[in-house]
Amino acid sequence: MAGAPHLKPNDVDLAVIILAGWTTKLTWDLFLRQLALELGHGHVYSKVAILKHARIKEAWNQARRRLAQEVKEVGERGQGRSIVAQLRRKLDEARDQLAVERERNNNLIEQFKRWQYNAERHGLKRSQLEAKLSRPSK
């Protein structure tokens, strides 16, 4: 039975790129399986084999630090993956903004209704209300 193919420099580059873009929970099992998929030959390397490559080892450490920092910044470790926590925070902010905009819209609708009522009470016609604005003379 043939052993695993040796990692070529391009394979090491790919592993570093994968780690640099990693956004979910980082485990050796997940990473090694993703690397096997990306390399296309189907072999899942062992952690020991991967750690022989200094560039991959450093990229791993950087990815772990980066993901840990993201979790710390978000402050929601209990919500799972840091990207999910960030998305939840953004969703909450969007919902808050939507509530503010809805309130503003409701206030403008109420104002319009008051103006419409008062215009009708004072005998203003729709054509008068929709007349184009004249430019002030200089």
Automatic annotation (TrEMBL):
Coiled coil: 57-111
Keyword vocabulary terms for this entry: Coiled coil
Domain of life: Bacteria
Name of the molecule in the record: Uncharacterized protein
High-level lineage: Bacteria, Pseudomonadati, Pseudomonadota, Alphaproteobacteria, Sphingomonadales
